[in-house]
Amino acid sequence: MLDVTERDETDIAAASRGELAVLLVSCDRYKDLWPLCTEMMHRFWPDCPYPAYLVCNQAASISGFRTIAVGPDRGWSANLMRALEEVDEEFVLLFLEDLILEQPVSTKRVAHLFNWLKGASGNCLRMNPSPPPDGACNELVGIARKGGLYRASTVMTLWRKSVLSALLRDDESAWEFEIRGSERSDEFVGFYAAHDKTFSFINTIARGKWGRRALRRVRRLGVDPDLTARGVLSHMAEWKGRLFEVRSTVLAHFPARWRRTIRRILIG
């Protein structure tokens, strides 16, 4: 992933100044996914010019990645807080180990978005519109307004490291961070979301098991993943997950300032 022969000049400049790192946030309970996740990153983003780190508990050897071993698992946010102390770059691009790339990544687009965020003195940029921006900015990105859902996102998101660190609490899961961290993020300006998708990926794991649809999509990539570590969701659990997706789609149609309140009513 770090062996690159041809790069855009803006990519070289960003990488050489040590400003951005790719951070694959995981723990050893999910190490069965590392070979698949990193293989697809190599396949679909072979010219990535940024240093890549894997957050894990015990030291591991993963081609193209420097591992940050944080020791005993203390939870997603606590592990990430510890890992960020080992990252020298000012910005990080968050990846999760259960999000598997399935189409080529445009390094030029990533560099364009990153250079825009840096030039705007921004703090956070969701590189996929999930949810889309709720305020106008320009043809490339929109504003993620205060009060919006998932304003603090863990999914394919560019973060200013200092702001991400300020929002993390060591007792929260990734899901809890996206909910509570979004509320805390209202203290900050400079949050954005891209209008168009930057990364095409498969969300593979739900409730610790493989999704059935996700498994079919992964196999279409020519890969037959190891299922012994976690198994496959039941049909009922799969349908419950689809209902959650429908609910999220419905929420996206409400004005941004109402979404958190409506979500609390629906979920608690």
What number is the mean pLDDT? 89
- Calculate Rg over CA atoms: 18 Å
Give the assembly state of these chains: single chain
Structural class: alpha/beta
Q: Quickly count the domains.
A: 1
Helix content: 25-40%
Strand content: 15-25%
CATH architecture heading: Alpha-Beta Complex
Q: Distance N terminus to C terminus?
A: 42 Å
Q: CATH fold name, please?
A: Spore Coat Polysaccharide Biosynthesis Protein SpsA, Chain A
Stretches where pLDDT falls below 50 for ≥5 residues? 2-6
Shape: globular
Total DSSP helices: 9
Provide the succession of SSEs. HEHEEHEEHEEEHHEEEEHHH
Q: How many strand elements?
A: 12
The level-1 CATH class: Alpha Beta
Biggest sheet layout? 8 strands, mixed
Keyphrases for this structure?
17% strand, Spore Coat Polysaccharide Biosynthesis Protein SpsA, Chain A, 268 residues, 9 helices, globular, 36% helix, disordered N terminus, alpha/beta
